[in-house]
Design brief:
By secondary structure, the protein is mainly alpha-helical. Helices cover 81% and strands 0% of the residues. It has three helices and no strands. It has helices at 2-28, 34-37, 44-66.
């Protein structure tokens, strides 16, 4: 059971990392090479905080662009 929970958290962390990379790419207007960052890990709580910050920044940028 513990191994299943750990695998779920790791998969969630991997998905959040990819989402954060895409949001960062949108903000910078540059691409990224997934193979370079494939092995890197970020703690889950930092990934969630980064998702909130980058999501807010993208929302503010797009809201200012279209209003």
């Amino acid at each position: 059971m513990t191994l299943e929970i750990k695998n779920i958290w790791n998969a969630l962390n991997r998905v959040l990392t990819i989402i954060n990379l895409v949001l960062f790419m949108v903000l910078n207007g540059q691409g990224f090479d997934y193979t370079k960052v494939k092995g890197k890990t970020v703690p889950l709580y930092l990934n969630v905080i980064l998702l909130l910050i980058l999501g807010s920044a993208v929302f503010i940028t797009l809201y200012g662009l279209f209003s």
